[in-house]
Amino acid sequence: MGYTKKYKAATILAIGAIILPLAAGWLAPNASAESAIITSGNPYYTKVSAPVLKPLWSFTIAAVKNPQSTQTVTALAENGTVFALQNNYKLIALKAATGKKMWEFGSALAPLFIYNSGNIYGLTQKGSLYAVKENGTKLWSTDLALPNASSIQKIGNTVYVTQGIYLAAVDAVSGKLKWKINENSGYFGLDQLAQADGVVLRTYIGESVLALSSLVAYDAESGKKLWEQYRHELPLAIKDGLLYSVKNLAMLDEDPVNRKIPVSVINVKTGEIKGERQYRWTETADPDIGFRSGGAYGSAFLEGDSLYIFQGDTLARYDFWKYSADGKPQQVWEQAILESEAPLYKVHQQRMLFINYRDQSLAALKLANGQVMRLPAGENPAVQLDIFGSTIYTGQSDGLFHAYDFISFKPLFTVNTGSRDFAPTLKTGSTLIVRSGGKLMGIKLPASIK
What we know:
A 4-stranded antiparallel sheet has the order 3-38-37-36, with no helix packed on it. It has a domain at about 185-295: Thrombin, subunit H (Beta Barrel), CATH 2.40.10. It contains 1 helix and 38 strands. A hairpin with a 5-residue loop joins β14 (about 165-170) and β15 (about 175-180). By secondary structure, the protein is mostly beta strands. The chain has one helix at about 10-25; strands at about 1-5, 45-50, 55-60, 75-80, 80-85, 90-95, 100-105, 110-115, 120-125, 130-135, 140-145, 150-155, 160-165, 165-170, 175-180, 185-195, 200-205, 215-220, 225-230, 235-240, 240-245, 260-265, 275-280, 300-305, 305-310, 315-320, 330-335, 340-350, 350-355, 360-365, 370-375, 380-390, 390-395, 400-405, 410-415, 420-430, 430-435, 440-445. The model is unreliable at about 5-30 (pLDDT under 50).
């Protein structure tokens, strides 16, 4: 099993190419063929060699009419059960191992729902929030008048729903609406939230020429706006009543040589800036490129106690809780990535992950030795990529779905789905749910894959 190259022999064609012109005068005196200006071909192509697995079952689900829609959740898999939105816009529960129907719920539901602690929280097409137990028993329903909601999140005992500038908070047990607010109309709200010390945090992007984020804090019980800090992002961390947020320096400091990422230390309850950290490095100026920031060229994220900063040519790691003004990084790696590769802000099995936005291929920088590994190309470009445990799953534009070992990149198995359209893969226990062509396909994983 593995990757092979196919070669098409051309010996007979070459002999024919010599003989036919000599005979052309007496075989077909009036025949003539137009010659190409240039002819070039490649007899080699990639073939992923792996056992082919067939789905144990399949099930057609609701189609997302607009791929750019904010509501695209049509299936989830948890605790051996697949929860899916049917074509009739009812929720159905299927046994993951067999595809057998367990129960059905609701009507006119929207493609937006989550699973959390044994319950499903979802949206109706008219903008109501509902809760149902994983056994199909309805808990409650609350009208929010948010038919275009883009996210549902449960934090603590509260379910939050976002829609543009709107943010609603619902008691997770009773379904009672706690509060609903709408922010400045000149903003666009991002979906991700954070909560600590009775404060809910959300970032908004200003709809102006310089679209920068503002970090806004609300009282978790009343929804009252507490404070706002311009040019700040959701916090890297919150500890002892303080949050740590990266400050955006666009149009303030764009020195291409003496670079820095400032991290503001902010009081969670009052919004007062108590101090600022500055993580500095230097780069060699390139007059043809100029200043670049964001992604691989100036961004940071926190993983455990380690702060990783992408610094263009290098990747640096700092101990976040042992900051000093003149502190040096604990480790530095050469960031030998392609221009088309961007960080995924995730360390998995001691590898920093990157995605190639041109062909959806994966690259991994080994933190042990700095080596960059790239998943070999399949027969065609990938349109979907997922990682579960030690396995990479890719759905290709030709309908082939491949599984690879995360460490060695060795092909493990292939599924022929028959469709180039893929959605995020699901997994529960030893069952993989491939989503392609508007269908769910249940795959029994080999025993070697966990």
